[in-house]
Specification:
Layout lengths: L8 E5 L5 E6 L3 H17 L5 E6 L2 H11 L4 E5 L7 H11 L4 E6 L15 E4 L4 H21 E6 L2 E6 L3 E7 L2 E6 L4 E6 L4 H4 L1 H4 L4 E5 L2 E4 L3 E5 L2 E4 L4 E2 L3 H16 L4
Parallel strand pairs: 2-3, 2-4, 4-5, 5-6
Antiparallel strand pairs: 1-3, 7-8, 9-10, 9-13, 10-11, 12-13, 14-15, 15-16
Helix pairs in contact: 2-3
């Protein structure tokens, strides 16, 4: 049987996903049981937006991950034909360093092996509602903390979570966003399908970051001066500042420093 990279099913709640879950099990009945538990979990915690994508093989999940992007949570069966759950977790780690992996299995024999994939939890089947809900609650709390301080960037080598405090500025170069970091390095994102503004929207939702021109953004913590030539950064770099954005950016910069954030 050949599995496609598309999931067997995708169930979504809300337009913007606050939590993206991948569920992988070769037994359809097991998939359906865990899907039902996830629906109960969401019903008990209304208001959170999310998407659940179900896969019947590890290969189909990996193909989807490479083509469509990372998930926040991976709920993986361990014993599967082809690529088993442990190897699947290790392969996921090569593409996504920060996603949370939870193993669901009928055997405790693989608990030690799960550390190879840096699993967040290891639950025995039949999965107990209380244990699954506790695991998801803990992951949700950790994700909430992480999202306030990190941004996920897709690169040719996989997905990176960049600490916001290390991002100095960014620019669009040949349809790719270049993220310049405080250690002098640069991270090149993958070629954009949408607009530059959409790509950096998660950053701009943080008060430290501003769009200073059509293809440039800056971290206000690294801005030393705003002049007629643009934004002067601490590393000597000068970024352009559009006339229409000047008043707003200047006000944000003053608020940033007067508020003690700079």
């Amino acid at each position: 049987m050949v599995f496609q990279s598309e999931p067997l099913s995708v169930k979504t709640v809300g337009e913007a996903f606050a939590l993206k879950i991948a569920l992988c099990d070769d037994e359809i009945r097991q998939l359906q049981q865990v899907e039902a538990l996830l629906e109960e979990y969401h019903s008990a915690r209304p208001g959170g937006e999310w998407a659940v994508s179900s896969f019947s093989s590890g290969m189909s999940l990996l193909e989807h991950l490479q083509a469509r992007g990372a998930f926040d949570v991976y709920l993986l069966d361990v014993i599967m034909p082809g690529i088993d759950g442990i190897e699947l977790g290790v392969s996921i780690r090569e593409l996504d360093q920060g996603g949370h992996i939870v193993y669901l299995t009928s055997s405790p024999d693989f608990a030690v092996d799960s550390y190879r994939a840096r699993a967040s939890d290891y639950l025995l089947k039949p999965v107990e509602e209380e244990r699954l809900f506790q695991a998801l609650d803990e992951i949700a709390r950790r994700l909430d903390r992480e999202r306030r301080d990190f941004v996920t960037v897709k690169t040719r080598d996989g997905f990176l979570r960049l600490p916001l405090r290390t991002i100095v500025c960014g620019e669009l170069v040949r349809r790719c966003v270049h993220y310049h970091l405080s250690d002098g390095s640069m991270i090149e994102g993958m070629s954009l399908r949408g607009s530059f503004q959409d790509a950096v929207k998660p950053l701009l939702e943080d008060s430290r970051f501003v769009l200073c021109a059509a293809s440039f953004f800056a971290n206000l913590s690294f801005v030393e001066r705003i002049g007629s030539d643009g934004l002067q950064l601490a590393d000597g770099r000068t970024l352009p500042l559009s006339r229409g954005l000047r008043t707003g950016v200047t006000g944000r910069w003053m608020d940033h420093y007067l508020g003690g954030e700079g």
